Automatic annotation (TrEMBL), chain A:
Signal peptide boundaries: none
Keywords associated with the record: Cell membrane, Membrane, Transmembrane, Transmembrane helix
Gene Ontology terms: cellular component: plasma membrane
Recorded superkingdom: Bacteria
Cellular location(s): Cell membrane
Record protein name field: Branched-chain amino acid ABC transporter permease
Transmembrane segments: 12-31, 37-58, 70-89, 95-113, 120-136, 170-188, 217-234, 267-286, 292-314
Topology of this chain in the membrane: Multi-pass membrane protein
GO terms of molecular function: branched-chain amino acid transmembrane transporter activity
InterPro entries to which the protein is assigned, alphabetical: ABC_transp_permease, LivM-like
Automatic annotation (TrEMBL), chain B:
Protein name: Branched-chain amino acid ABC transporter permease
Record key words, sorted: Amino-acid transport, Cell membrane, Membrane, Transmembrane, Transmembrane helix, Transport
Topology class, membrane: Multi-pass membrane protein
Top-level lineage group: Bacteria
Main location: membrane
Transmembrane helix among keywords: yes
GO terms, molecular function: transmembrane transporter activity
Length: 331, 300
């Protein structure tokens, strides 16, 4: 049994400082480098970071592996699109409504499947994800079936619709950073400590008067809403959704992101998403070469850096620096 | 009515045999290592594609094509063993799961480069002409699938119960340290598990491809089905994996017969969630072992 490091109160202040600096950098980016296609890529990073942060909260803190984040991404995307297109609700309001739907479904599913553990939880959430994908494909009167839905309206702010990459970038990144900040604070809060304790053993947590089951359902709902919000933002940015949005492959992509960024690092999720998105956009043209490359890269990363690429590199650099420092002192 | 019943029975047995070969393979590797092998379906894909290429396209005789396919899956099994256990000593369970996902993705991509992304099949072993039993259509290949799978699974059960190697494998899956102490070479039994598991998948690919066709990407869904079947039955139990596979096949067949084929997966996966909730350790109870007591898959 490992001891659980209790985060000091000043971690919350440190988080605020780092997040503010990061936010300032991201907001300044388009004004320094001007417009360009890179903004489009970065919008996708902001969108995909949300489900990755969600999964990182769930499995990083409480050690539970769910394969349902693609499904909640799809529910967020379809939920908001259906409300906006079929009922004519304003996109911003439909997005918020969609998150309530996602939260309700996550609470219902979570209450049932979170009684299972480890591989059994993974397969139950995987089954749920496959069911959602099938329902989206087959319930075509509402979801548009295999063709999906087109003409999903963009968000409007003060009568201006968000269509240019730069405008979307400037709205989406603050949202993502706000969610990151929330996640960072949650992970050092009392709730975060309880969740980390659950990962070490539920009976102990229960014996201390903390209802482990409720905490698990709670973090599952929060984590799923992260994914759902990502889905809604995605739908209103690209303007269409298809059953491929949030499919099983997507869920696996998100797990890969964590493999790159590290399972217990929220910042790592962001770096992992950026790496995967860049690879998708620029480096890999052919789908089959991409599969080969991604597959081999995943294997290599997990063998060389079992805790994930980013934590592995940080450890390497850290030990290099310490060694360098010692050498310098000796000289 | 009797026709419907006969048809459901024969289809369940055919599809169930196919899933059983994958599920038993998943279960074998799980017993030996605690690893859930997402790349299990790739055995089926590799052998199906190899025989389709050599026998179906290049016109080789069937026997050498099957020989090459079996050698290919044995090599692939050995490679997976090295990746998931030999090299991955420091990697957490979730990390090893990701390694097998990576292996599955890379293998399907490689297969799509070696062959192509189209579906492949080859001629059935004893012709296409179906015959009728109680009005139900039976193809000769379905009988091949059922027969070969029965022989394989029965042979495996006999092997595990009655041979020294099989007993050693069961001992290792119960308690590795105790097995080491009485002189059982644990690494060798793990290797045997991977090779047997690969052979089962390979045989599955060879007998089912004439009926179901194969493409470079068909491995992952098969693995998920096999994984679900093994879990339904009770992880680590061969009989359980067989029952789980037949149950999944039965639900699918009934759905396709009386409902829509598009929705055939829906009752299946609903049933998986329900069974897991009602019988958390599967139909036959599975094995109570250390791996499952870990609530944290990210622990190294």
């Amino acid at each position: 049994m490992t001891t659980i490091a209790l985060p000091a109160r000043n971690e919350i202040r440190n988080n605020a400082a780092t997040v503010l600096a990061f936010a300032a950098g991201m907001i300044a980016l388009p004004f320094v480098f001007g417009n360009g296609y890179y903004l489009n890529t970065l919008v996708f990073v902001a969108i995909l970071a949300l489900p990755a942060l969600g999964l990182s909260l769930l499995s990083g803190l409480s050690g539970q592996l769910a394969i349902s984040h693609g499904a909640f991404f799809a529910l967020g995307a379809y939920g908001s699109s259906i409300l906006a297109v079929r009922l004519g609700i304003d996109p911003a309001i439909s997005t918020i409504l969609a998150q309530f739907i996602v939260a309700a479904i996550a609470a219902a599913i979570g209450a049932v499947v979170l009684r299972l553990r480890s591989h059994y939880l993974a397969i139950a959430t995987l089954s749920f994800a496959i069911i959602v994908e099938l329902l989206i494909e087959e319930w075509s009167s509402v979801t548009g079936g295999m063709q999906g839905m087109i003409g999903i309206p963009p968000y409007e702010i003060a009568g201006m619709s968000l269509t240019s990459d730069k405008a979307v970038y400037l709205v989406y990144w603050p949202i993502t950073i706000l969610m990151l900040w929330f996640a960072l604070n949650l992970s050092v809060s009392r709730v975060g400590r309880a969740l980390r304790a659950i990962r070490e053993g539920e009976p102990i947590v229960d014996s201390l008067g903390i209802r482990a089951a409720n905490y698990k359902i709670g973090v599952y709902v929060v984590s799923s809403v992260f994914a759902g919000l990502g889905g809604s933002l995605y739908a209103h940015f690209v303007g269409f959704v298809t059953p491929a949005t949030g499919s099983l492959m997507f869920a696996i992509d998100i797990i890969m992101v964590l493999a790159l960024g590290g399972f217990d690092r929220l910042w790592g999720a962001l770096v992992g998403v950026a790496l995967i998105t860049l690879l998708n956009e620029y480096a890999l043209g052919f789908a089959d070469y991409k599969r080969i490359f991604l597959g081999v890269a995943l294997i290599a990363v997990m063998l060389v850096f079992p805790r994930g690429l980013l934590p592995g590199i940080i450890d390497l650099v850290g030990s290099g620096l310490r060694k360098g420092g010692a050498d310098a002192r000796r000289a | 009515m009797i026709t419907d019943l006969a048809q459901i029975l024969i289809t369940t047995l055919t599809v169930g045999s196919m899933y059983a070969l994958v599920a038993v393979g998943v279960s074998l590797i799980y017993s030996a290592t605690g690893v859930i092998n997402f790349a299990q379906g790739e055995f089926v894909m590799i052998s199906g594609m190899t025989v389709a290429g050599l026998y179906g396209q290049l016109g080789w005789p069937l026997a050498p094509a099957i020989g090459v396919a079996l050698v290919a899956v044995l090599l692939y099994g050995a490679l997976l063993m090295v990746l998931t256990t030999g090299l991955a000593r420091r990697t957490s369970l979730i990390g090893v799961l990701i390694i097998t996902i990576g292996a599955s993705i890379a293998t399907s991509g490689t297969a799509a480069r070696i062959w192509d992304s189209d579906t492949h099949r080859f001629a059935p072993f004893s012709g296409d002409a179906p015959f009728w039993v109680f009005g139900a259509t039976v193809t000769p290949q379905a009988l091949w699938i059922i027969g070969v799978s029965t022989v394989c699974v029965a042979g495996l059960i006999w092997f595990m119960r009655s041979t020294m190697v099989g007993k050693a494998m069961r001992a290792c899956s119960l308690d590795k340290s105790a097995a080491t102490m009485v002189g059982i070479p644990v690494q060798a039994t793990v290797m045997v598990s991977f090779l047997l598991s690969g052979l089962l998948g390979g045989v599955g690919g060879i007998v089912t491809t004439p009926l179901t066709t194969v493409d470079a990407y068909s491995g992952m869904l098969l693995a998920i089905k096999g994984f679900s079947a093994a879990m339904l039955g009770g992880m680590g139990s061969i009989v359980g994996a067989l029952l789980g596979a037949l149950l999944i096949a039965f639900i699918e067949t009934v759905t396709v017969t009386f409902g829509s084929s598009a929705l055939k997966e829906l009752p299946t996966f609903t049933a998986i969630i329900l069974v897991l909730l009602l019988l958390p350790r599967g139909i036959v109870g599975g094995r109570q072992e250390a791996g499952l007591q870990h609530e944290d898959l990210t622990k190294q």
